[in-house]
């Protein structure tokens, strides 16, 4: 296909799909390097409390631990007992980084999310949800973000699989754009924009790479990055923390399947995944939102055009990306 500008239905952002910039998608795939497995000896997450980690906030597993949530040793946000207050530095608005920054650590040194058993993978998401629910009563917080960096290209400084939770006093701009776009579409059409997209993608099938009874994984029509994947619950669910166990099972299954497809078909790339959900305050305002997971393999690098314009150039047609990942 010829290069094409595409406008995101939710955010309104423009991106460029330019498959002609890559002779073959496999040229991108070949850039992945063989993963270097760090030794167990010396890993700071092997014996957490003996290596200086504080008392676990939450701990799972009978007898020996299988999963712990602990404070990040190098936090971007810290709990100070008082709420952040907006201030000024000349013309600039500032505030303190009041909040929480925590690690969710699984016991197995060599098992990333795709390699966890179905039960252990489900436990990771239960831990996310349990901790999220604990934040709801904290009036100092505006948003909770949950994310995972796998591999050095994705920002992971420790090999041992771990996930991060950051509870912060502001709503991040990317989330705010998504909320605004969702609200605008609902006001005009009386429909959830994400549900509309899901219905179209499921019927169209070209960009679907995995589907079960309650969740679907697909390559977005407006994909900012090569082989980007979105994973949605089929039910209209605005709030991750309110997701029932049965729906969580569907989501976990779709995420594990998607990660296995990345490893098999893209030669085990580094990646990030993160949860987009509605903010924790003013719940009545966000019923039109639809929580989901975004999964982004680290294959391409932004250059001058992307940095200078904010318009991403994706060298892989999402239809073709989905066809490759379905294998």
Question: What's the quick description here?
Answer:
This is DUF4921 domain-containing protein. The protein is 27% helix and 22% strand. It contains seven helices and 15 strands.
Number of helices in the DSSP assignment: 7
Major sheet summary line: 10 strands, antiparallel
How confident overall, as mean pLDDT?
92
**Which residues sit in consecutive blocks of at least 5 with pLDDT less than 50?**
none
What is the strand arrangement across the widest sheet? 3-4-7-9-8-13-14-12-11-10
CATH fold label? HIT family, subunit A
Strand content range: 15-25%
CATH architecture: 2-Layer Sandwich
- Rg from alpha-carbon coordinates: 20 Å
Tell me the name of the CATH homologous superfamily.
HIT-like
The level 1 CATH classification is Alpha Beta
> What level of helicity do the residues show?
25-40%
What class do helices, strands and sheet pairing give? alpha+beta
- The strand count comes to 15
Number of domain modules: 1
How would you explain this protein's 3D organization?
With 327 residues, the protein is of the alpha+beta class. It has one domain (4-325): HIT family, subunit A. It contains seven helices and 15 strands. It has helices spanning 25-29, 118-135, 173-189, 193-204, 245-266, 304-309, 318-325; strands spanning 4-7, 14-17, 58-60, 67-71, 87-89, 92-94, 100-106, 143-150, 162-168, 208-211, 215-218, 229-233, 271-276, 292-297, 312-314. The strands form three sheets. It has a ten-stranded antiparallel β-sheet, sandwiched between helices. Strands 1-2-15 form a three-stranded mixed β-sheet. A two-stranded antiparallel ribbon has the order 5-6. β1 (4-7) and β2 (14-17) form a beta hairpin. The longest helix has 22 residues, at 245-266. The protein starts with a strand and ends with a helix. The mean pLDDT is 92.
């Amino acid at each position: 296909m010829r290069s094409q500008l595409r406008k995101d239905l939710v955010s309104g952002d423009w991106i460029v799909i330019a498959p002609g910039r890559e002779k073959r998608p496999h040229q991108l795939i070949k850039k992945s390097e063989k993963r270097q497995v760090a030794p167990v000896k010396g890993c700071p997450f092997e014996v957490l409390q003996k290596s200086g980690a504080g008392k676990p906030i939450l701990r799972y597993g009978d007898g020996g631990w299988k999963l712990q949530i602990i404070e990040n040793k190098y936090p971007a946000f810290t709990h100070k007992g008082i709420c952040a207050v907006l201030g000024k530095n000349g013309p600039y608005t500032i505030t303190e980084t009041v909040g929480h920054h925590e690690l969710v650590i699984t016991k197995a040194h060599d098992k990333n999310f795709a390699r966890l058993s179905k039960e252990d993978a489900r436990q990771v998401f239960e831990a996310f949800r349990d901790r999220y629910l604990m934040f709801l009563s904290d009036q100092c917080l505006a948003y909770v973000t949950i994310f995972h960096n796998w591999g050095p290209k994705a920002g992971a400084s420790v090999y041992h699989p771990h996930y991060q939770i950051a509870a912060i006093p502001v709503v991040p701009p990317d989330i705010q754009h998504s909320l605004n776009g969702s609200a605008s579409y609902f006001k005009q059409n009386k429909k959830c924009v994400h549900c509309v997209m899901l219905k179209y993608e499921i019927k169209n099938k070209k960009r679907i790479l995995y589907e079960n009874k309650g969740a679907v994984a697909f390559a977005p029509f407006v994909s900012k990055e090569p082989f980007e994947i979105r994973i949605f619950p089929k039910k209209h669910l605005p709030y991750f923390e309110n997701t029932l166990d049965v729906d969580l099972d569907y989501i976990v299954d779709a995420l594990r399947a998607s990660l296995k497809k990345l490893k098999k078909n893209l030669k085990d790339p580094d990646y990030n995944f993160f949860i987009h959900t509605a903010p924790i305050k003013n719940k009545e305002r966000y019923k039109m939102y639809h929580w989901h997971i975004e999964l982004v393999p680290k294959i391409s690098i932004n250059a001058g055009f992307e940095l200078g314009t904010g318009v991403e150039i994706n060298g892989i047609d999402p239809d073709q990306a989905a066809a490759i990942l379905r294998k």
